[in-house]
Amino acid sequence: MTESQEILFAKLLVPLLILFAIAVLYFIFNKSQSIIDRVIAALHSVIAISGAVYAIVVCKLTGPNLFEPHTLIFSNILAVSAIFGFVAIFLFKGNKAIHLLLLPYLICLAYVWHVGGMAITHTLI
Questions:
Q1: Across 5-34, average pLDDT
Q2: What residue numbers bound the domain in which 78 lies?
Q3: What is the pLDDT of residues 22-58, one digit of tens each?
Q4: Which of 59, 100, 104, 124 has the fewest CB atoms nearer than 10 Å to its CB?
Q5: Apex CA 21: angle with CA 14 and CA 80, to 5°?
Q6: CA-CA distance, 87 to 85, in Å (whole number)?
Q7: pTM for the full predicted model
Q8: Taking the mean position of all CA atoms in its chain, how far away is CA 39?
Q9: Does residue 45 sit within a domain?
Q10: Looking at the domain assignment, is residue 42 inside a domain?
Q11: If pLDDT is split at 50, 70 and 90, which confidence band does 15 have?
Q12: Is residue 51 within 8 Å of 77, Cβ to Cβ?
């Protein structure tokens, strides 16, 4: 792991933990549905975590002029995550108060997009 990857991981550690906790809570509190529906309802946070991991891995592979396709892929991963967050509103059949977790989810998603995008374009460090 390079120094820039370590710094990026340190900056994304708290949002990653929050996103993981949100995924677990969405899975646990959706008891009345099948395992597949529970996984799909919790998938939005898992996809956001994979986007953050993508940014950590790709920041080593990109250079100052070689980042354009990676920023598009990174943004698309996070857009798919946001779409699954919208799907979770309709698919989740448990206590609807759990949807309040979408606020910290969106904050974490925006933070991951900002910090991860800066790391991929090498403007973070």
A1: 92
A2: 3-120
A3: 999 999 998 888 899 889 989 999 999 999 999 999 9
A4: 100
A5: 85
A6: 5
A7: 0.91
A8: 15
A9: yes
A10: yes
A11: very high
A12: yes
